[in-house]
Amino acid sequence: MSSSRKVPPDGDLTARARIRDAAIECFGEKGFGVTVRAIADRASVSPGLVIHHFGSKAKLRETCDEYVRQVIYEAKKESVSHPSADGMIRSLRAVDQYSGLLAYLFRAMQEGGELSRHLYEAMVADVQSYLDIGVREGTIRPSRDPAKRARWLAANGFGSILVLVTMQRDQENPDFGQVLHDWEQQYILPALEVYTEGLLADRTMLDAYLVYVSDPPEEER
């Protein structure tokens, strides 16, 4: 897969930020087995400088996790706090800039383990946080269970991406730029319809479920 986020020349970013961005690229392209030397080469610094700034590759990954989360959170928060047609169009036109972040997140979920579980749970909490902001701003409808809604949305988002990745011929080195364009072409319209207009024409199933959970069968109590 070609690099989706280019590291700016010396002087445009601090060395620490260049190393972080290079690590996000390398982890997204090759997974978390990539060496510190490979990350240093991508950032045009020495391996020693990587360790000087971050202490270890594990600490570097934690920094990358936090940065990726923050970029996504800020974009989502803006979209629910100040939704606009212009903002929507700008997001669609700038979709390529997120391919590196998507690659990183996919590799993190693919890796598994405690760090990946922590990242996922943190992102679920982020979803709930920006949805809560939207509820307060009046741009998002309230939920009977905000935590479960956030968890469902996070799982649904990751699941839809997983499907598109598995449909690519080269699953070892997916083209995440293409994945994002496929997502846009295949999913944005139905997603916006469901989120904006709803799917079911009446409340029959919801009301039945609410009755069920308020008085479950005796064997399930």
TrEMBL record:
One of its GO terms (molecular function) is DNA-binding transcription factor activity. InterPro entries: Homeodomain-like_sf, HTH-type_TetR-like_transc_reg, HTH_TetR, Tet_transcr_reg_TetR-rel_C_sf, TetR_C_25. Residues 13-72 form the HTH tetR-type domain. Residues 35-54 bind DNA. SUPFAM superfamilies: Homeodomain-like (SSF46689), Tetracyclin repressor-like, C-terminal domain (SSF48498). Keywords: DNA-binding. This is AcrR family transcriptional regulator.
